[in-house]
From TrEMBL:
This is Large ribosomal subunit protein bL9. Keywords: Coiled coil, Ribonucleoprotein, Ribosomal protein, RNA-binding, rRNA-binding. It holds the Pfam family Ribosomal_L9_C. The keyword Endoplasmic reticulum does not apply. GO terms for cellular component: ribosome. The lineage of its organism: Bacteria, Pseudomonadati, Pseudomonadota, Alphaproteobacteria, Hyphomicrobiales. Binds to the 23S rRNA. It comes from Ciceribacter thiooxidans. It comes from the Bacteria. Residues 13-40 form the Ribosomal protein L9 domain. Belongs to the bacterial ribosomal protein bL9 family.
């Protein structure tokens, strides 16, 4: 199906372009959300008549998104979750959690604006991409830790999942023979 785009859509086209898309994508997403019109003579003339208002509305949305992006740029957010000794979370941090964290800080971001291909399942510093507008995108840092103190240590660059951090042992000093030596004879069995 051919449609006329009413706004810029990533990986598809710019406002005003006539593009060919799959019928289901047009019927289920583009047309109901007002992101496109069917490509016919009547809709082409309608688009040309409304082009100035559509461009003004797009520019306004972009400027609002840019203000939010400027406020969020360079920020790091601490997420406290329960985790095992190896750093594996007992749950996960999903897009819904990122939205809740940002809302607690006063930023209004919807779940579909958070790009998180897989939930975060380990402690550490994680980059999460936010698509605030088709032309405005930024990355925020999530500091996932077991406590606020660990989050501070992690922010300074310490690793909380290494043997040194967990057991107080220097990883370089560990050797396999310190743990298991199959050639060693067991004491007390030679009688």
């Amino acid at each position: 199906m051919e449609v006329i785009l009413l706004e810029r859509i990533a990986k598809l086209g710019q406002m005003g372009e006539t593009v060919k898309v799959r019928d289901g994508f047009a019927r289920n997403y583009l047309l109901p959300q007002g992101k496109a019109l069917r490509a016919n003579a009547a809709n082409k003339s309608r688009f040309e008549a409304e082009r100035a208002t559509l461009e003004a509305r797009n520019l306004e949305r972009k400027s609002e998104a840019q203000k939010v992006a400027d406020a969020l740029s360079g920020k790091s957010f601490v997420v406290v979750r329960s985790a095992g000794e190896t750093g594996q979370l007992y749950g996960s941090v999903a897009a819904r959690d990122v939205v809740d964290i940002l809302a607690a800080e006063g930023f209004n971001v919807s779940r579909n604006q958070v790009e998180l291909n897989q939930p975060i399942k380990s402690i550490g510093l994680h980059q999460v991409t936010l698509h605030l507008h088709a032309e405005v995108e930024l990355a925020v840092e999530l500091n996932v830790a077991r406590s606020a103190e660990e989050a501070e240590r992690q922010a300074k660059g310490e690793s909380l999942t290494s043997a040194d951090a967990i057991y107080g042992v220097d990883e370089d000093a560990l050797r396999p023979e310190d743990f298991f030596n199959p050639d060693a004879e067991l004491e007390g069995e030679q009688e």
